[in-house]
């Protein structure tokens, strides 16, 4: 739900207290295993200006790099030359279509569709997030561009998704990013029972990412398993900066609430703080540890925000992790630990120390894995090129053979009398090929 400074703060629907009391832990619904679950629609500002905005039909790059003021107001310089050299502006196809091969759709959220693509420029795989809706106002466009600013700001940190470039064309925003293996949500559905050691490691990754945000006075506001991606190096990366906002701006009623399943209770009163991210992270850890189907509203929703976490949920996790999750999910924001306090937990300190000790070896393993992937990708490109080359030579050869065989025969059929020759279908000619035979002997 989006608000503006002049408006009273709209509220989320009050959770439905008539819903069934039965807890749904331990069994996630089977539909979770199906393709993308429908996500709750984001509530949008009712009286937003609808003055249309129209970006060029030619693609142009978007970048905030090098911009000094960090207040998110100014729009970036649009650098028309920052896009790939293979882009031909005179063609009808978009930059996306010209420069990438779309391989599959790998995700969808409320704002964007994400595709797995191969770049025609370097042959490497990427993820491209394309905004679902056309820009309907300059305000909407600026909201989308804000995500580019954040991706650029945090790209390069091991626990954020690597960002390459963004551009807009035909009133849509495109973002080219590192291709991650899968989201944590999908990982949970696939694995179900995640070892506690892995959960601590995931928590550490997300705390390191969150520390980066919170140290800059920014809040994410949409922390959930869907927005955590697993990279090639097995580390967890925080993604989706669509709602990231400065704490002060958030409390001037400009923030947008995230998914209600992970939302801290005080958000309903319009209180946005770093502690809201801690609450959402606590819920995500609870979901991971208990394979719990999180409610969008209802009695369980209320209970999870009242400080009473049913013991049933926690029976398979260690008291250490249970205590930490309870603290992170305290109803009062002031009672929740900060990122730094959680990072000083002895379990996390020892994990971090262990990581630092093994850093060199982990780096080497990553480099080997990356170069192996790059080599394989190059090999695939070569294989594809050789295959296309051989096929085209064979096709030309067989075509010429067929034509010269026909030439040698007497022209006796009525079609041949007219100079038209039919080449029979063969394994090499999947479609019937009819070619005009220019018979010099025949006028
Ligand atoms: N770089 C990536 N690599 C692999 N998958 C990705 C990548 N980026 C996004 N995805 C997939 O696409 C989904 C949607 O992406 P994202 O969360 O950025 O979109 P959104 O429209 O902003 O979502 P939301 O509804 O959370 O606001 C993610 O949950 C994830 O599964
Ligand atoms: Mg998302």
In short:
The protein is of the alpha+beta class.
Descriptive key words:
disordered C terminus, Transferase(Phosphotransferase), domain 1, Phosphorylase Kinase, domain 1, alpha+beta, globular, seven-stranded antiparallel β-sheet, 13 helices, 443 residues, golgi apparatus
Give the biggest sheet: 7 strands, antiparallel
Enter the CATH topology name of the largest domain: Transferase(Phosphotransferase), domain 1
The CATH homologous superfamily of the largest domain is called Transferase(Phosphotransferase) domain 1
The oligomeric status of these chains comes to: single chain
Order of helices and strands: EEHEEEHEEEHHEEEEHHHHHHHHHEE
- Total individual domains: 3
Contiguous runs where pLDDT drops below 50 for at least 5 residues:
1-52, 68-80, 423-443
Organism: Ceratitis capitata (Mediterranean fruit fly)
Catalytic activity: L-threonyl-[protein] + ATP = O-phospho-L-threonyl-[protein] + ADP + H(+); L-seryl-[protein] + ATP = O-phospho-L-seryl-[protein] + ADP + H(+)
Biased composition (Low complexity): 49-61
EC number: 2.7.11.1
